Amino acid sequence: MGLGGLIARLGVGMQADDRMAEAASLAPGRDEIAAAWAGGERLPSLVAEDRYTGTRLSGDQLARRLGEGLDFEQLRAYQPGEPAARIDWRVSARLDEPVVRVHREPAQRQAHMVIDCGAAMRFGTRRRLKLTQGLLAAHAFAAGALRQGLAVEMHPVGEMSCPGHHVGGAITGQAAILQRLAEMAGAAGASGAADRNLSPPDWPGLRQRLAQRLPPGSVIVVLSDCLADTGPGRAIDWAPLAAHQHLIFVSISDRVELDMPDMGLAAFESGEGLRWLDTGSQRWRELFSQGQRAALREWREAAESLGSAFLPLAADAEPADWLPEVPIALARAAGVTA
Predict the structure, then answer these.
(1) Contact at 8 Å (CB) between 249 and 222?
(2) Around Cβ 211, how many Cβ atoms within 10 Å?
(3) Crossing angle between the packed helical segments 282-305 and 325-333, to the nearest 10 degrees
C-alpha cells in the first residue's frame, strides 16, 4: 500500500449526535454560495473557442435524438402514420415509393457536474468537509456555465438517494440549480448519517453512461479526490470521454492529506482496511507529503496530456482564492503558456 493511497479517517466511532451534525453541515452556507456564484459568473469560457463547439449561441449542437430540425440527417422509407409533410415528393417520384426526410434536432450545449458523494469526501479538518467544498465548487462552475449559455445537469456519484435528480435532466435556471444542489446536500447528509459504510462510487458505470448520453463537445466537471482509493481512478480511464468532451478535473483534498501533522499513533484506511501509523516521525511525514504531491503532479500531467484541465483544490479554500486559478488550468489544458 503506497503513501498516496492513504486517507486519514479521524471520525471513526462517531456518535449519533455527531452524525446528525455532519448531515446538517454538508450544505454550504448562504454567504459561501453567494460568493461562489459571484466568482463563477466571471469565469472564462469553459469550452475552448477553437473547438467545433466553441460558440456562445445555444442550440448549435446536434442532438442524439432524430426529429424536427434544420440539420438534414437521412432519407428513409415512409412509415404508415407519419405526417405527409415529411415526405420528399421529388425523391419519392423517382423511386416509385414514398420517402421521408429525417432531420436531427438542435440541442443546447451542456455542462455536467459530477460530484463525488462517497465516503472519502466526508472528511475535513478545517472549516468544511471535502464534499461541502465539492458542492460549493459545483455552484461556482454552474454559475459560469449559465452565464455562458450552457444547460447544467448534476450527477452525484456514490451511495445516496437524491429525489428527482435522475429524471430532472439539464436545467437552465439559477433557482432550479440552487434547489437541485440543496437536495443533493440533504440526501448525501441523510445517507451518511444512516450508514457510515457507504458503497464505493461506480465510476466505470458513470463514464459509460456519460459516453452513451452526451453529445460531443459537452463540458464535464469532475469534483472528487483524485488521490483517494474510491476516487475517479486514473486519468487514462477518462480518455474515451476526453476525446469528445471538454473535461475539467477538480481534485479536492484536506490539507492534512497533503501535509500530515503530528498526531501520534493514528488510524488510516485504504482498500486493505485500517492501518495504524506513527505520524510522530518527521521523516515519515516528509515522505508522505512528497508522495502525495508527486501523485497530484502525475495526475495533472496525465489529464493535460488528454487535453483536460486539472485543478487541485483545498477543502478549506474560499472561492475568491481558488477561482482565479481556473483560467490558468484551462489555459494549461489548451497548451497556452502564460
Answers:
(1) yes
(2) 14
(3) 60
Q: 261 with 2: CB under 8 angstroms? A: no
| Angle at the Cα of 319 from the Cα atoms of 293 and 35, rounded to 5 degrees | 170
Between helices 130-147 and 30-40, what is the axis angle to 10°? 40
Three-class secondary structure of residue 289 per DSSP: helix
What single string gives the DSSP state of each residue in 18-32?
HHHHHHHHSSPPHHH
Cα–Cα distance, 28 to 103 (Å, whole number): 44
Render pLDDT for 281-337 as a digit per residue (tens, 0 to 9). 888 889 989 999 999 999 999 999 999 999 999 999 999 999 999 999 999 988 754
Residue 104 in 3-state DSSP?
Answer: strand
Helix, coil or strand: residue 91: helix
Listed in sequence order, the residues at least 6 apart from 17 whose beta carbon sits closer than 8 Å to its beta carbon are none
Cell 472528487 found at: 224
The reported pTM is 0.75
Rounded Cα distance, 58 and 110, in Å: 9
Which residue is associated with the grid cell 497533503? 258
